[in-house]
Amino acid sequence: MPTVIVSDACNGDAVCVDICPMNVFDMVDGLSSPERADDCIMCMACVNACPTQAITVE
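Predicted structure:
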């Protein structure tokens, strides 16, 4: 199962929330949080869309 990490570089623009086909992310206190990381299919859409490169999927 993949590990989804959102770093301190997150600017809270919610691009990952909107683009993730598996709805892995929620906004928590104004920042992205991978609340359902177990559902990640490693498509990397969030990584490619994040303007601040705050997301890592391993």
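Summary: The chain has a mean pLDDT of 97.
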